[in-house]
Amino acid sequence: MRKLAATLLLVSVCMVNAAFAQSKTITGTITSATDNEPLPGATVLVKGTTTGTVTDLDGKYVLVVPAEKEVLVYTYLGFKTHEESLGGRSTINVALEEDILGLETIVVTALGIPKEKLSLGISTQEVGGDRISSSGEENFIEGLSAKAAGVQVTGAAGTPGASSKIIIRGPSTFTNENQPLVVIDGVPIDNGTNNTVAGDYAFNSTLNGVSNSNRAIDINPDDIESINILKGPAAAALYGSRAGSGAIIITTKRGNKAGDKAIHINFSSTLEVNQVSKLPAQQFEYAQGTGGGKQKNDGSVDPEGNLVEADPGPDLLWDTDDDGSPGTPSSWGPTMANAGRTPVDNVADFFETGLTYNNNLSISGGTDRGSLRLSIGNTQDNGVIPTTEYNRTSIRINSDMRIWDKFKVAADANVITSGGTKAQNGSNLSGVMLSLLRAPTSYDLSDGYEYASGANRNYYSAYDNPYWTIYNNPFNDKINRVLGNVSATYTPREWMNVTYRLGADSYTDERKQIFSIGSNDPANAPGGQIEENTIRYRQIYSDLIASASKEVNKDVNINLTIGNNLTDIDVNYLYARGRDLTIPDYYNLLNAADLYASQTTTRQRSAAFFGDFGFEYQSMLFLNVTGRNEWSSTYGPNQGSAFFPSVSGAFVFSEVLNTNKIWSFGKLRFAYAQAGIEPQPYSADTYFSSPIYTDGFTDGFSFPYLGLPGFGFSQTNAQGNPDLKPERLTGTELGLELKFWQGRIDFDVTVYKQVSSDILLTKPVASTSGIAYVFDNAGEMENKGIELTLNADVIKRKNLIWNVGGNFSKNENKVTKLADGVEEIEIEAGFGDPGAYVQVGQPYGLLYGSRWLRDENGNLLINGNTGMPIADSISGVIGDPYPDWLMNINTGLTYKRLTVSGLLDIRKGGDIWCGTIARMNRLGISEASADRDTTFLIDGVIDGTGAPNTVEVSPENYWQNYLGDNGVSEQQVFDGGWVRLREVKIAYEFKLDPKNVVKGLTVSATGRNLWLKTDYPGVDPETSLTGAGSNITGFDWFNNPGTKSYLFTVSASF
Amino acid sequence: MKKILLIITIPAILFGSGCKGWVEDVSESPNLPTEVTPALLLTVSEVAMQSLYTGQLARTSSILVQQHAGNDFQMIEVRDYAFDEQDNTNEWKTIYADALVNQQELINVAGDANPYYRGIATILKCMTIGLATDYWGDIPYSQALQGSENFNPDYDAQESIIVSIQADLNNAISDLSAPLSANAFIPGVDDFIHGGNTAQWIKAAHMLKARYANRLSKKDPTGSANDALAHLAMAGLASNADNTMAIFGVNGNELNSWASFNDARQDYIKMGEFFIDLLNSTNDPRIGFYATQTPDALYLGVPNNGVNFDASNTGPLYSSDAAPLPLLTYYEMKFIEAEANLRLGNTEAAATAFNDAVKANIIATTGGPNTGYEDIFAAETGATISLDKIMTQKYIAMFTQPEVWADWRRTNLPAITPNPDGKTDGIPRRFATCIDERLYNSNAVIISDLLTPVWWDE
Question: Which residue among A679, A836, A984, B248 is least packed, with the fewest CB closer than 10 Å?
Fold first, then answer.
């Protein structure tokens, strides 16, 4: 060993000596050929090495070049790369030409393979990291909203850290993963949204509880250099069965570029002020109670109504003999004056201004042999709902080192700790909004949420006071995560290299949900409950990739990449619950009389062998073929492996047609590919399970029963299928890129058709066979669409730049096949009425529920006696939660050091079931329902006669049974479209002397969601009850509200 | 070029075979077992069976015979006879894909080496299929439970299903009569209904045989009576100690079906007016056990087409967390004995059995005798006994049990007035074929008219 070390030392000394032997010093200036201005920060490298330097503020450089080296390479972002032979010169001045058409732009594609954008036949769209971080979103997935064509982002909003869901080109599977694979520096990471579910819970947990985080939120947006969105199967085909829903390729910021040996320190600090953006309004005229509609359903007139208020009796405890009244959630009482009450605005009083602090510090440096970037970021986000918060601290170190000229290593590590406090949401008696929005304005919620007895003080004993919920029933999560990779690249020849990369993503997510004694929600209420849930996730990922590229002759270039890829995922999910607590405010499972625990372990492996072959003719014609053969533990044993091919081509027709002053570039793209979506693990075999016998009314029976375990077949446990194979996405796309006026206008259009086949479903079969469901590759669905992107530099002068850009996308989805005999499948349990279904011939995820009967002209059929519309006995389609189209327009204006920018976000259509407003109408608490002095005429025709309806209905009938949720779900579906000013920003960069300690200083102010135009009656329609961990969308049942924000940022560089 | 191809393909082949093995190492679920013991299956089989006898099927029948009243939401649909092919899919699936499938699996797993387990499983299976055919008539049985071998099982005639119930129960009795030494494994606490007591199970088998013999009263009045009496003689019943009860617990996942329903679905079901009026009019001592009082300290039922949120709820004896519910009882058998004897003209025997039945039920319900009531209502003689009296008292005694609806269909007793606003013209006499069968079983025989009688009701 010692001998080896000595040898190595000797060799390196010799190398150093050799380097200094006959080196020569070259000086020069680099300028722009366009305006002859010097280019500061341009790179000069000795070709084939990392030896180099960067130019100073005057564009000047000095470089010591080793004796045997003869060629220098000059690069500068946005300019064409230039090479110069020394030819014995000691001064070399270079004027670089602008790469106006962006022909040399490199993008990172699947498996981290960099390619020239010019050569791509596939559809990708790059979003710069600066656009993500300047959005101020702590979740980069949310930061992607309205920034690319064909990408739909829906934030669950409500509490800090809530998930954001991203879908590219529409849904591609019924019940599996509809979100793209997220890849960081070549290694996929987990972006799951884990929900806390007890093993004995038979319902859809996303309809209540808290809005959990999607795990991509752990990534600090400030670390992101760029995001490349691989849209279709073609772009992502090399990821095989994880690529069916596209992929998001993230490149993180690295240390200094070669040649730059300075130390750069950047610091930025942001203060964000958040406010609730939109809330359904309450009425302040009528008090809590019943019977107060002036005209009653039975025709009698009762202007007074009865004041009904909660009264637990002298003992201040509920459900005891002295209870006066449990109260009522109804605001159909007397007028405030008659009730002797002064209205209070409980809703406005409840929400706070939430302050978010975001600080980032990064240090980067470089030497001849390598570079390093270290960053530390912290976000502390305090929600508009008191007590809710999200905190993230991220430390990332990215390092590169060239050990020998031909051997390079890199190591990246990211350590994250995140988590916070969330509040209950949606369908539960402890939901914040459920109790808050129903609160009669005659009752002051803030006047204490606890009686002296310790019982819940609220207007209705069956609901928790929202203050009780936030102070007594917190949900906390704590995530500790490490992700990163090490890689080694060996470059034996200039035209080939071999890379091995080993990546890991590992986290634990520890959650605790408390329901204090006296809370209404858990099944054993009011006994109190503790839930402890630990999720441990670990993924190991390995790539071995060999690439070669060869210039066959002057016109033809070929390149080939082959490789192997292994993935091993191990997830352990541990849940423990304690019910019936004895000691108040003591939240350890020891305090529980009734204990329950459940556990799930998921192992998943895949192995693949892949290749990528490229052919290029005269920088004009490009052809690319890829293939991936994959084995996966999730496939049925009879399936073997699956093969995913792709072929794409590009034709730069501006090379053969004459460009002119107006038209400067044109390219046609074509791609065809197949990618996959994996079955859920363990679907190939049939297992015995611990059954749950539910009857749709109660929690049913489960095991252990009377202390006895039980295992057997179960109707809910589908029979395994040894023939299971991955779902297959077959995509065909055509694209056209055009540039005009020397690249000032840049236009891109893509049309695509993506057919999903072999879609996995739990196919219902006749349960008389003893089996109720079988897993099967049976469904088919297609997405067709168009994506347009336009960018224009309207003004491009030295001191004034104005650009305008935009994206438009429209996707049409149609389910073309389910299994035989299957007419519809509920994707996940919704509210029954409405639910979210797939039906043949209809778009995916339709809202399905009760409707009014109508005549052939679409008029409501009205009961001639009552004046009320008639409910159809058959449920039907009541809404499509997916938008008709999406558009966004961004603009930026830079005058000298001042930049103003804006982002307008338009969503056309996208229905949402607003159960919230329907229930508020029914309870007489919605602002509109204060209109109860008069009778109402419902527009329609009399059933039987067809004559126009003239029978008026009472306000009670109107608000409860027509516009309230006693009516039909159809009436409660609203257009969730919007036009919003998603971002507006003004920034000023100070002019500082570069010799100062502080070299750069920028201050900016950003507004987010400051203006929102929508017909939606509930909260901000960017809302999702079920969140990113669910495949159903379009449900609003007392969802927590969205926010609008003001951000103030100072960033400095040293 | 050839060399390159070789370099690519050879590792590919080697790698490919290695890959399959490497990924398959983790393809089996660590979360769920692939093998189970008879004990696990027995507990599951018993829970599945009793969940059917006490759940939505019982609630529906109890509303149909107006012991209870549908007062809100889905239960109003039941009250209005507005249930159809979609409304009981859950129960249908539970019958086949939760109950029968596990009971059959237990019969298979137990085999000849475990006659006790096989015998109990057979009784549970007969109870399950019996309940199913009472509600749905002709249903798949001989071709059912074949898994992926047959997703389109043929329908068996109800007559043949009842024949196989009787035959299977004979086998069960002989299995349960085997010596202890013939068993590899012995049921114990896992049999939470009878704790592995084979004598009790043998009695249960005889009781079930008597019930299904008497079920055929319309088809073969004399033969059914003789058969029923023969089975009862074999049963050797003595008291309520011979009852087979559904057993519940205090935890949220094991609550008495009526208690958990009334907790989760408050006021969906109230006491029925016909039933409460009947009890009130006779000062029946059982009323306080069957029903709760209103705030005005009254026992009040809801009319068969009305709604009343203040009316009485199901009483604590039947609707408390861990309260057991009757499945097969001594008093039911005494009523069968009375009815069978009456059919054969043995009026004295009928009267004696009837009086015993009422007294036994009063003890089972109230905890002791009630001479005041019994002197009037359990003092029949050969001269005074009538079918109306037997069926009316049985109707009261068999509170909440699905058997009441079957009895009413056989005898039209007691004389209940149908809901005048009901969707069907009269009280339904069956359930509609489940929608799943219409959609997924090409051999299904679809009957959607709720007034079409099942075979034994024809």
Answer: A984
CA of B182 vs chain A CAs: smallest distance (Å): 25
> How far does B63 lie from chain A, in Å, by closest CA?
16
Mean pLDDT to the nearest integer, A971-990:
96
Average pLDDT, chain A: 91
> How many beta carbons lie within 10 A of that of residue B1, not counting itself?
5
| A713·B263 Cβ contact <8 A | no
Q: Which residues of A touch B93 (CB under 8 A)?
A: 715, 767, 772
Contact state of A711 with B22 under an 8 Å Cβ cutoff:
no
A265 in Cβ contact with A1054 (< 8 Å):
yes
Name the residue among A557, A565, A445, A435 with its Cα closest to residue A111: A565
Tell me the pTM. 0.86
**Residue B16 pLDDT more than 70?**
no
**pLDDT mean over A824-848:** 88
Residue carrying the six token digits 């927590």: A1040
Residue A1, pLDDT > 60, answer no
Q: Which of residues 56-115 of A touch B (CB under 8 A)?
A: none
Cβ A768–B144 below 8 Å, yes or no? yes
Cα separations (Å) of A750 from A170, A653, A655? 15, 17, 21
Residue A11: pLDDT above 80?
no
Decide if B43 and A705 are in contact by the 8 Å CB cutoff: yes
* Beta-strand relationship, A911-914 and A187-189: unpaired
Backbone dihedral angles phi then psi of residue B406, each to the nearest 5 degrees: -65, -45
Q: List pLDDT tens digits, range A721-766.
A: 999 999 999 999 999 999 999 889 999 999 999 999 999 998 889 9
Q: Which of A594, A689, A767 to mutate to test the interface with B (most CBs of B within 10 A)?
A: A767
Using only C-alpha atoms, what is the Rg of chain B?
A: 25
Contact between A466 and A436 (Cβ < 8 Å): yes
B290/B90 Cα distance (integer angstroms): 27
Closest by CA to A697, choosing from B379, B7, B51, is: B51
Closest alpha carbon within chain A to B98: A714
Helix (H/G/I), strand (E/B), else coil: A855:
coil
CB pairs under 8 A between A and B: 232
CA B21 to CA B19: how far, in whole Å?
5
* 3-state per-residue secondary structure call for chain B: CHHHHHHHHHHHHHHHHHHHHHHHCCCCCCCCCCCCCHHHHHHHHHHHHHHHHHCHHHHHHHHHCCCEEECCCHHHHHHCCCCCCCCCHHHHHHHHHHHHHHHHHHHHHHHHHCHHHHHHHHHHHHHHHHHHHHHHCCECCCCCCCHHHCCCCCCECHHHHHHHHHHHHHHHHHHHCCCHHHCCCCCCCCCCCCCCCHHHHHHHHHHHHHHHHHHHHCCCHHHHHHHHHHHHHHHCCCCHHHCEEECCCCCCCCCCHHHHHHHHCCCCEEEEHHHHHHHHHCCCCCHHHHECCCCCCCCCCECCCCCCCCCCCECCCCCCCCCCEEEECHHHHHHHHHHHHHHCCCHHHHHHHHHHHHHHHHHHHHCCCCHHHHHHHCCCCCCCCCHHHHHHHHHHHCCCCCHHHHHHHHHCCCCCCCCCCCCCCCCCCCCCCCHHHHHHCCCCCCCCCCCCCCHHHC
Quick: pLDDT tens for B333-388: 999 999 999 999 999 999 999 999 999 999 999 999 999 999 999 999 999 999 99
The 10 Å CB-count burial string (b at 16+, else e) for B315-350 is bebbbbbebbbbbbbbbbbbbbbbbbbbbbebbebb
pLDDT in tens, A561-615: 999 999 999 999 999 999 999 999 999 999 999 899 999 999 999 999 999 999 9
